[in-house]
Amino acid sequence: MSDLLELYPPEIRDHARKPRNRRRLECVDATARGDNPLCGDRVEVFLRLEDGRIAEASFLGRGCDVSQASASMLTGAVGGLGSKAALDLSEKVREMARIGTVPDGERFEVLRSLAGAAKFPSRVKCATLAWVTLEAALRGGQEASSE
Amino acid sequence: MDLALAPLDVQRIRQDFPILSQTVRGRPLVFLDSGASAQKPRQVMDAMRACMETAYANVHRGAYHLSEVATENHEASREAARRFLNAARVEEIILTGGSTSAINLVAHSFGRGMLKPGQRVLVSEMEHHANLVPWQMLRDDGRGIGLGFIRITDAGELDLDSLHAELRKGDVGLVAVTHMSNVLGTVTPAGAIARMAHEHGARVLFDGSQAAVHRRVDVQALDADFYAFTGHKLYGPTGIGVLYAKHELLEAMPPFLGGGDMIETVTLERSTWAAPPARFEAGTPPIIEAAGMKAAIEYVEAIGMEAMEAHERSLVDHAMRVLPEVEGLTLVGSAQDRGGVFSFSLDAAHPHDLSTFVDRRGICIRAGRHCAEPLHERLGLESGSARASFGLYTTHGEIDALAEALREARRFFA
User: Fold this and answer.
1) Full set of structural domains in chain A with CATH
2) Which residues lie in coiled coils (chain B) (predicted)?
3) Residue B384, phi then psi, degrees to nearest 5
4) What is the ipTM score, two decimals?
């Protein structure tokens, strides 16, 4: 049970049960859809930008607790970031989910709960789906895949 | 002897499978993913080792003793597959890399060589991607060959009215359907399907990847034109499978892959083709794997398909009792004739979360769409499903363990 709690810490379960910003934004400046073709998980990320910074982020999706909680956390973590800073953060999150080491920074106080995925290799892509989708949206792509 | 009551000593059988004695985090391994790939008995490993230690050389080539022995053993594997399917002639058995390559062989050689422009291939909504994508590729390569679909009922059975309606259009050249669904466990009425197809001048292919493991298959009684199965689901090694095809078809079909072993004469400008089965077996074949598959066939023959079927029926009956008792669990499909494959969803948890949770109790189940995306869309299961599939070593206790773990999961994720 103890190691299950690493993949499903209270923050993950809270976000999975009560997803934040789970809606489509009225004004969308950047968006992308991410799919995991193997399991059917899907995340759509919507961004509203102001002066080149992310003013608002939201998501819609379906899938496992990890993928949906990750998307929910993302919408809270990227607010105020410029495109480059958001891409940097996203890369750090994906690295954290892969190797399990939590980087410094206040934004990781919540995001650190995604680090537990590293001990579950088949679940890393659940944690990173929303983030590859964010990257696709920021780079002007339409679609992303966690495979 | 009443075959339905033929005993199967599961505890003794389990001793043949070394991997099953493993423990996972202090709990016994409960392997419920045999539908994806089955575990291997020691007999299969021993046969592969013996092949390499005592009788290994390339086959069909050398004129020396060892090569002759290897060739003889290799052909004995073909004969074992013939016997297993009750094919009329050993030349009707093509050794392939698995079901996928067997079906691709048919799509290429029969599809591109013998189907006519304007003809269609029919597949069902419950096919594994291996029996769907090759036909999409055939449709899309500009030869004018179409693709049609046989509907399934909400219970997850093949809709024979839909098959009949499609056949009546008069343009069907091949019906390619599963003999047992890898998601629903549904066993399709292969004999009736073949009869209907033949009445309308169509040929029929069965993907027997699941069925051949669970039922006695008699390609002559079914009047199958093509039948594919794979070694690794039949307790044999990966990398080997079988395509059965009627001899008259094989004789008329052009080769699939070109290379050594499949030719009669070769000049720099052109070649002529060897007779079947060699025509369809270019290159050095899976020699060691064939030895393993032969041992696997002999292993299940020694146990007896009837005894295996009876054991499976008891597992299916037990699962049908135990799984629906888990609160919040919904079984996918409710076919009358079904084998030991159960897909399900649980209200409180996504299939992937479920799979991870029960894995922590040593229980291996599959989660996802099981290489059958269109079927999951058809059934409204965009999130996929969880699947437990049984083998001849599966026990009632393992099904109980799954049910208990699912109850715990429901509490955990609630």
Assistant:
1) 4-139 (3.90.1010.10)
2) none
3) 80, -165
4) 0.83
- What stretches of B277-398 adopt beta strand conformation (E)? 329-332, 341-346, 363-364, 366-368, 385-389
Q: Among all residues of chain A, which has the CA nearest to that of B368?
A: A39
Residue type, B21: S
Q: Transcribe A61-100 into DSSP letters.
A: EES-HHHHHHHHHHHHHSTT-BHHHHHHHHHHHHHHHHH-
How far, in whole angstroms, is CA B331 from its chain's centroid? 22
| Cβ contacts of B384 on chain A, cutoff 8 Å | 39-40
Query: Do the Cβ atoms of B277 and B78 come closer than 8 Å?
Result: yes
Q: Between B353, B369, B413, which is nearest A40 by CB?
A: B369
Contact A39 B349 (CB under 8 A): no
Q: How many other C-beta atoms are found inside a 10 Å radius of the C-beta of residue B48?
A: 22
pLDDT (tens place) for every residue of chain B, 414 residues total: 444 445 689 999 999 999 999 998 889 999 999 999 999 999 999 999 999 999 999 998 878 999 999 999 999 999 999 999 999 999 999 999 999 999 999 999 999 999 999 999 999 999 999 999 999 999 999 999 999 999 999 999 999 999 999 999 999 999 999 999 999 999 999 999 999 999 999 999 999 999 999 999 999 999 999 999 999 999 999 999 999 999 999 999 999 999 888 888 888 888 899 999 999 999 999 999 999 999 999 999 999 999 999 999 999 999 999 999 999 999 998 888 999 999 999 998 999 999 999 999 999 999 988 888 888 888 888 778 999 999 999 999 999 999 999 999 999 998
- Residues of B annotated catalytic, as ranges: 371
Chosen for mutation from B24, B25, B353, B354 (greatest number of chain A CBs closer than 10 Å) is B353
How many angstroms separate the CA atoms of B76 and B95, rounded? 12
Question: What contacts B153, CB < 8 A, 6 or more positions away?
Answer: B159
| Token reading at B254 | 């052009």
**Is A5's Cβ below 8 Å from some Cβ in B?**
no
CA-based nearest residue in chain A for residue B413:
A13
Q: What is the Cα Rg of chain B in Å?
A: 22
> Which domains, and CATH codes, for chain B?
3-31+304-413 (3.90.1150.10), 45-301 (3.40.640.10)
A17–chain B nearest CA distance, Å: 9
Q: Which H/E stretch holds residue A50?
A: strand A42-50
Does the beta-carbon distance from B352 to A1 stay under 8 Å?
no
